[in-house]
Amino acid sequence: MPSASAISSSSWSSVLTRWFWNRELRLLLIHYGIWVVVSLLFVWFESTYLSADTLQKISPTIVKYRNDWGGYVRLSLIADLLYVLPVHASYWLYKVLIGKGKTWSIVLFVLYFISYALILSVLTGMVVGYFSLPLEREEALATIFLIWAYTLVFITVRAYRENRRRQRDLEKQKIQAELQALKAQVNPHFMFNTLNNLYGTALSGDADRTAAGIEQLSSVMRHVTEASHRDFIPVDQELRFVGDIVELHQMRLPRTDTIRIKTEIDWDEQPAQIVPLLLNPLIENAFKYGISIQHPCFVHIRLQVKTGTLYLTVENSILPRTRLEKGTGLGLVNVRQRLALAYPERHTLRVEEGNGTFLIDLTINL
Predict the structure, then answer these.
(1) Is residue 317 situated within a structural domain?
(2) Domain range for residue 356?
């Protein structure tokens, strides 16, 4: 059984660890350390490069400690701590009061900040009295004003940066929510199309192709299920998924010279990550709107990943269709939205239509 002293030591260690990892405490300690270092460097510079007469005129305090560095270090450690603590305390009070968003809280903080000069006056008087500093009234007032102005700038900058950080977090959460919503749209659409493909294969009476299709579908749906819960997946998994989709579509099509399917998938085997299920709608649309048993048609797919960049070209024939058969373009809209959210300024998507051909050219800097 551990002794009481061991438990006490462990508790204190835990408390100190939590304090050390507290962001505000770390900032305070860093801030305090910077002030001490800067003040010591400032005194060293003035005492080294300025004459005694000049120092006596502009800063009698430095003259007093010119040959007593140990004394000035003690002065700096105590004075800087007394000034840094109110600076951070003022920011904490700002967050507490202004965060309420009430008129009375804003008025209260303004009144506090006006009276903050009085607090600094008391602290300055304590330092001057304790160390018996030869500080003139004008120099004391200048010190108080500089600390007051510094605190105002400190609060303003911290509040601005904190507000920007919150905005970035909210935007990130919004983007994640939108990506999940768009990803959720892909799954049922893909399932419907794939089952429809297998239904067509089964009607043809080809049991072997149907069995192979079911096995292929199992692999594809396993990928869809697992990838739906992840923000990014290895690019080779997505390439394999695209290959499986193409094979499933080919299974339902008759072997005829009027239907030409060409697929090229290449990867340089360099590790890369990609948003899952991103390319699927482009492949789906090519087969849905570019293939017909009654008309000569084609689908050409070239997918390449090289040195962290993905290149996809999908080209398919444009077939005559009735108004009801024309697509709504939701798949392409979905892809555009997901690209804008996941790869802003890191992708190009070109869509062309003409001469009986529909072309999609996509480049993503992964």
Answers:
(1) yes
(2) 172-365
